[in-house]
Write a structure and sequence with these properties.
- 23% of the residues lie in helices and 19% in strands.
- By secondary structure, it is α/β, with parallel strands linked by helices.
- It has one domain: Rossmann fold (3-Layer(aba) Sandwich).
């Protein structure tokens, strides 16, 4: 999920370090706080409680292997393909982990919460499964005969959806535990590599892709310009590059919060700062592991568009996605549902390789 940041660090250069922070960091001076659930930088928990961390994701409890791919207890080594993966990959140069340098640091913040994140994504009704992934697949134009790059692929959930729609996929992530989870799923027509997206083209220099996605991870990436440039060099002409973010205008850690105005019976989103870029430490699950942190990098929307243009992309689509959830009871249900419709949670930007 992240490369060149505290969540991943430069995967082949340095080890990431956790940072200390406070629980989801919303500033609430002058407003009444209504969202008290811990919040992470990949999912919104404003009206609902986040799932508690688990020591092992459900799909790993029974080994997570199918008969077709079972070859003992050891997962596919990092940087290698499982047999049968990428059916049309013959003749392509292979990723050489030895040339890539040291494997990604295990001490990065998302490495530390990898098992919790896999459990969270396996729960039903998440924002990812109901809002983010369907929208990203549509904007990518996934279909048979195309090969896609899943940047900061995590444990492979989005890559699996690409394959189900007929595409092939290469996923890259700097967290070894997340890549191991993805490999253990044995998704057909896929391969998952431990690596840094900021220089992935160095190791995949002769690979070309029909599209790329960076889903709910860019806000955790420090050097996004290096990542954009690397992805650009690996895409075919006119190929789409879809990035999905927690909305930068409304979901700014420590600089935005929910409030409720009693006189008008209306809920609103307060934004205290937007234009200033900053790095914000985030506690992932304060009650259970208060010392485990990630870092969220806030940037205004113009920064993303400018960086895409500098990397050789022309922005041809931008969408804002709202929550799929609905309050059915409670004195503020009407206000909560209204604000869900009016304040978008996610921003999706699509650039095309020029």
């Amino acid at each position: 999920m992240e490369h060149t940041s505290s969540r991943r660090g430069p995967a082949f250069v340095r080890r990431g370090k956790g940072t200390r922070g406070t629980q989801h960091g919303d500033r609430t001076q002058g407003v009444q706080r209504i969202d008290r659930a811990p919040r992470d930088s990949r999912s919104e928990t404003s009206f609902d409680n986040a799932p508690r961390p688990s020591r092992k994701p459900p799909y790993m409890k029974d080994g997570g292997r199918s008969d077709r791919f079972s070859r003992g207890d050891r997962p596919t080594p990092y940087g290698q393909r499982a047999q049968g993966a990428i059916s049309r990959a013959e003749g392509r140069p292979k990723f050489d982990q030895r040339k890539a340098g040291p494997r990604a640091a295990a001490a990065t913040s998302w490495e530390n919460v990898a098992e919790w994140y896999g459990t969270h994504l396996s729960a039903p009704g998440t924002y990812q499964s109901e809002v983010v992934w369907p929208g990203a697949l549509r904007m990518l134009g996934v279909g048979p005969g195309k090969t896609f790059l899943d940047v900061a692929c995590g444990e492979g959930s989005f890559a699996n959806l690409i394959v189900k729609q007929g595409g092939e996929v290469v996923g890259i992530d700097a967290a070894p535990t997340l890549i191991r989870q993805a490999q253990n799923k044995h998704i057909r027509n896929s391969e998952f590599l431990v690596g840094d997206a900021a220089n992935a083209d160095r190791n995949l220099r002769d690979r070309k892709f029909d599209g790329a996605a960076l889903v709910l991870a860019l806000q955790n990436i420090n050097d996004m310009t290096a990542v954009f440039a690397s992805v650009s060099r690996m895409l075919n002409k006119n190929a789409p590059f879809v990035i999905v973010l927690n909305h930068p205008a409304f979901r700014i850690p420590r600089q935005s919060s929910w409030g409720f105005e009693d006189e008008r019976k209306m809920m609103y989103r307060r934004v205290d700062s937007y234009m200033s870029e900053n790095a914000i430490p985030m506690q992932m699950h304060p009650g259970d592991a208060p010392t485990i942190n990630t870092t969220s990098f806030h940037r205004p929307i113009s920064s993303y568009v400018t960086a895409l243009s500098a990397a050789g992309f022309a922005v041809d689509a931008m969408e804002e996605w709202i929550s799929h959830k609905e309050s059915t009871s409670g004195p503020r249900a009407k206000a909560e549902n209204r604000v869900r419709r009016e304040v978008p949670m996610f921003l999706a930007i699509r650039g095309r390789k020029m």
